[in-house]
Amino acid sequence: MPSYHYLEDYVGNTPLVRLKRLPGETSNVVLVKLEGSNPGGSVKDRPALSMIRRAEARGDIRPGDTLIEPTSGNTGIGLAMTATMMGYRLVLVMPENSSAERVQTMRAYGAEVVLTPKDASMPGAIDEARRLQAAGVGRILDQFANPDNPLAHFEGTGPEIWAGTDGAVTHFVSSMGTTGTVMGVGAYLKAQNPAVEVIGVQPQAGSQIPGIRKWEDAYLPAICDYGKIDRLELVSQADAEAMARRLAREEGILAGPSSGGALAVALRLNETLQNAVIVSIVCDRGDRYLSTGLFA
């Protein structure tokens, strides 16, 4: 009999691709991890599956329960897919200026979407999700404080990068949203080789880049530990968007602005290093940003 698999079995093991043109003439190797190849289209499929699966294993939730989560987009899509797959009702709370593709995708999976004022940004969505939980609507999984978020990357993304480079990776670059990716992957790579440099990418003041955030102290994700990041780099909205367009037009990889922001920083490193192996995370696919004019 052939061996058949469920959808969740295809979360992870995404391609690690060497860039041909953007790095230019260099002694370095610049690689991108194509997380848009996950079934739900982003890196957030990993923590979504991890949080629900592990909460269920602990007995904290069971199929039929209602889950709540504040999200800017990709985690919500990953959770909507996973909740449907595993038999949960899902309420997602997100700012009203989120892209139409994201909202429609979540609803297509059957999630209920609650939109909050855009001026309140993610803190407003977090506050509303907490209000809904206090009112007894359901249980927040809490990607911002849930250790099952970075654990998904410690057990999955990190080992994949290490194996995919035969342990030669020297620099890891990731945009910072919930910070689960940079925390989990960074911890794994450091455990294999403490010399690996972990770089977190945040937006410059005044820049609004979906998926990249510099949090106010009151809302800093509990899973974030700046002491485990070697370097913080800032990127402008203009540079992140321009790099997303270049990634599509010069490398054939359609991705969103958070991926462009991380790659912009990775290519900065490429200009100053020699004989390095730089890995950058491509967080999602660019087709969920078409309505924003990113590629116009």
Could you please describe the fold and organization of this structure?
- The protein is 38% helix and 17% strand.
- The chain is α/β, with parallel strands linked by helices.
- The chain has 2 domains: 7-42 and 157-289, Rossmann fold, CATH 3.40.50.1100; 44-140, Rossmann fold.
- It has a 6-stranded mixed beta sheet with strand order 1-2-10-7-8-9. A 4-stranded parallel beta sheet has the order 5-4-3-6, with helices on both faces.
- α2 packs parallel to α3 (100-108).
- The longest helix is centred in the middle third of the chain and has 17 residues, at 148-164.
- The chain is globular and about 55 Å long.
Q: Would you kindly provide a brief summary of this structure?
A:
This protein is α/β, with parallel strands linked by helices and 296 residues long.
